[in-house]
Amino acid sequence: MKKEIFEPFNISDNNFEQCVKCTICTVYCPVLEVNPDYPGPKQSGPDGERLRLKDPNFFDEALSLCMNCKRCEVACPHGVKIGDIIQLARIKHSKKKPKLRDMILANTDIVGTMASTFAPIVNPIVALKPVRQIMDGVLKIDHHRIFPKYAGMRFETWYKRYAAKKQNDFKKHVSYFHGCYVNYNFPQQGKDLIKIMNAAGYGVHLLEKEKCCGVALISNGLINQATKQARHNVEAFKKSIVGLKRPVISTSSTCIFTIRDEYPHLLGVKNEEIRDESELATRFLFRLIDSGDLKLVFKKDYKKRIAYHTPCHMEKLGWSIYSTSLLKMIPGVDFMALESRCCGIAGTYGFKKENYETAQGVGKPLFDQIDGSDVDFVATDCETCKWQIEMSTSKKVEHPISILAAALDVEATMKLWQE
Amino acid sequence: MKFDNIIIGGGLSGLTCGIKLAEQGRKCAIISSGQSAIHFFSGSFDLLGRVHGEEVVNPIESMASLAATHPYQRVGVDNISRLATEAPELLERAGLKFFGIATKNHFVLTPMGIMKPTWLTIDDFTPFENKNAFPWKKAAILNFSGFLDFHTLFIQDGLKKFNVESQIKNFAMKEFEAIRRNPSEMRSTNIAKVFDQGNALEEFAQKVNQLSEGFEVVILPAVFGLFTKNIATALKAKVNKPVVLLPAIPPSVPGIRSQILLRKRFEALGGTYFLGDNVKDGVIENNKLLAIFTNNHADIKLEADQFILASGSFYSKGIVATRDKLYEPILGLDIDGDTDNNKWLDSKFFNDQPYMHYGVKTDSNFRALRNGKTIENLYVAGSVLGGANALKEGSGAGISLLTSLHVAEQLLK
């Protein structure tokens, strides 16, 4: 008998009619737990969708309280795309215009370019208390928030000056979607990735020109701009994946999630040709190791106790196993898994004054767990989780790739495949 | 990715199997398409409640009269009897305490106000020895104002049959004002979260004592202790008379706590639980399942020496019926059920519906068949097995728990 594929009839694009009203999603919504003004995933998603189809006036602006963490989708036993239904409803029906503040927070590319150019001036100024008070009062960016520091030299600039040339010495190649954070705030993470990939025998290249993945534009309602950037990125990915046969890897879980899933689901930008070969670096490395094509050698003196936090979009992708497996391969790592819970920041959500209390309330159980642990630091794949955890707990946060880079014996690893 | 055993399905059956195997040192993974039906847990596991329309007193004894195709008969009544002692012990190691034995059903009061026979009852709830009597004569039925998932009138009507005089009282507390603002979200789990996070319990217990003055027993919805059992225990200590908790409409607070504890136990034993993923396909060669592919892991295959299918029945899409076809959607396994769709349904809704007995076909060792041939390392457990109408018999949880333990034993041999 040939295998049958489950394809029920008359399913709408976002399958709201597959909801059986079991209410399981409401148990796992981190917002509902702390902010009763949010109608919750069931009411906002499949229940509300039925009403909105009859009359768009049923749209409730309180849907903007959804953090788009997708934990409702992970919990749903019937595969209803609850988070997508809510985000699409916002895109379609919201009458709220993005404020100046939203545009500043969402345009990570433009703001990043300006800020990193004047990094020595910008960093100390935005860290000043009076400035944060003004941003709080005028822009409604909560004064508790400290902006991530901007790097003096962007990752792209560094790459072109110091790394680009030798990448062609390798036989195998990948492209790297570094994202805004690595480019403007933390080039070291990109350097760490190049170190590991080179040690593994891969040359690392930049895309012809990458643009911000657009996740912040989507969540701030700047849909036209997000769609434009999505189309641009898909073309850039195509040139690498289809044209040059180079897969694209990234170190940001949210960027890669947005490109793989939010582009087609929320923006209607098709990505079939590139989706399978756009992934996280930890997944790329895991596959190589799992299939026996790569062996990493680690330093003997690297000893750390590390707790791993699963970012919401990693939970949705189901990919934290790759990052945690790699960390566990390091002999000197004493590993601890934190309960998979939202940290509350949700990108730009937690920066907004009106969301500050919700964001910290959502994250509290995670913060308590981290502060109660005796780890050296926390590992996670998402940059905004990192800011939130570093602001709200006593621990520092490192990316798994940076941890691998610190623990890797580069020469011994290279020797294995050079021989 | 390589494991010793991979279990498809993360509900009661899959978790039981996973825990048992992991306890024996197997490296296991569970793949679950979403959160499971344990979220609808009533608080009791039934083994066998009714056979041929008669209420069962001793489930083990009554099993002898079940059809030879029934999962209990196929496991063997002796084995069932032994595993029925093992099951609560396994649950207790996960932090879940139950009352009850397999040779004598006890009774629980349902939220419809009737006494129902059952096997194991979690210690949040009150087991009764006698189905015709309620031990107290004056009951205070208390509910949270605005909480619509607890139907107090049904309970009051039910208690009248036991000559119990009862009074229904609703009360409000400022701690619950916030969640009341959102009437559709005033659910048992949200009430439980207020207790879990804050200091509402002290004032609540005082209120309960006040409102139940002059009564012998307090009846409350089971909304205590979502992430920790302590709240339910503390409540009973603080209230100055017996407290009988009754299940509210799902999501079930003791159920979610059970799911969390079972998963934690499985993970503490080294198990990997993949939530929100679906198995798309498998590689079968020479009647052996070598690997499976999932949505999230795509080209990265998941390999194991043995696999267990515990994917549930129709509701969980473990088997699927379209207008004209009945099939197993993951691997295209053989189905034990009628190909003629006219025979699926009995036109009388409350009759024993034929489709309720359908499931995946297996050999005598509970291994799945495909195109008539046994897949040597693919075992089947839980409600995807078929062969019983769990709803009519009151046997769903028993089949899930005990076929899983049996299959795990086959695998460990």
Automatic annotation (TrEMBL), chain A:
<dbReference type="Pfam" id="PF13183">
    <property type="entry name" value="Fer4_8"/>
</dbReference>
<keyword id="KW-0677">Repeat</keyword>
<dbReference type="GO" id="GO:0016020">
    <property type="term" value="C:membrane"/>
</dbReference>
<keyword id="KW-0408">Iron</keyword>
<keyword id="KW-0479">Metal-binding</keyword>
<keyword id="KW-0411">Iron-sulfur</keyword>
<dbReference type="InterPro" id="IPR004017">
    <property type="entry name" value="Cys_rich_dom"/>
</dbReference>
<keyword id="KW-0004">4Fe-4S</keyword>
<dbReference type="InterPro" id="IPR009051">
    <property type="entry name" value="Helical_ferredxn"/>
</dbReference>
<dbReference type="Pfam" id="PF02754">
    <property type="entry name" value="CCG"/>
</dbReference>
<dbReference type="InterPro" id="IPR017900">
    <property type="entry name" value="4Fe4S_Fe_S_CS"/>
</dbReference>
<protein>
    <submittedName>
        <fullName>sn-glycerol-3-phosphate dehydrogenase subunit C</fullName>
    </submittedName>
</protein>
<dbReference type="GO" id="GO:0009061">
    <property type="term" value="P:anaerobic respiration"/>
</dbReference>
<feature type="domain" description="4Fe-4S ferredoxin-type">
    <location>
        <begin position="54"/>
        <end position="85"/>
    </location>
</feature>
<dbReference type="InterPro" id="IPR017896">
    <property type="entry name" value="4Fe4S_Fe-S-bd"/>
</dbReference>
<feature type="domain" description="4Fe-4S ferredoxin-type">
    <location>
        <begin position="10"/>
        <end position="37"/>
    </location>
</feature>
<dbReference type="GO" id="GO:0016491">
    <property type="term" value="F:oxidoreductase activity"/>
</dbReference>
<dbReference type="GO" id="GO:0051539">
    <property type="term" value="F:4 iron, 4 sulfur cluster binding"/>
</dbReference>
<dbReference type="GO" id="GO:0046872">
    <property type="term" value="F:metal ion binding"/>
</dbReference>
<dbReference type="InterPro" id="IPR017753">
    <property type="entry name" value="G3P_DH_GlpC_su"/>
</dbReference>
<dbReference type="GO" id="GO:0009331">
    <property type="term" value="C:glycerol-3-phosphate dehydrogenase (FAD) complex"/>
</dbReference>
From TrEMBL, chain B:
<dbReference type="GO" id="GO:0004368">
    <property type="term" value="F:glycerol-3-phosphate dehydrogenase (quinone) activity"/>
</dbReference>
<feature type="domain" description="FAD-dependent oxidoreductase 2 FAD-binding">
    <location>
        <begin position="4"/>
        <end position="399"/>
    </location>
</feature>
<dbReference type="GO" id="GO:0009331">
    <property type="term" value="C:glycerol-3-phosphate dehydrogenase (FAD) complex"/>
</dbReference>
<keyword id="KW-0285">Flavoprotein</keyword>
<keyword id="KW-0288">FMN</keyword>
<dbReference type="InterPro" id="IPR009158">
    <property type="entry name" value="G3P_DH_GlpB_su"/>
</dbReference>
<protein>
    <submittedName>
        <fullName>Anaerobic glycerol-3-phosphate dehydrogenase subunit B</fullName>
    </submittedName>
</protein>
<dbReference type="InterPro" id="IPR036188">
    <property type="entry name" value="FAD/NAD-bd_sf"/>
</dbReference>
<dbReference type="InterPro" id="IPR003953">
    <property type="entry name" value="FAD-dep_OxRdtase_2_FAD-bd"/>
</dbReference>
<keyword id="KW-0560">Oxidoreductase</keyword>
<dbReference type="Pfam" id="PF00890">
    <property type="entry name" value="FAD_binding_2"/>
</dbReference>
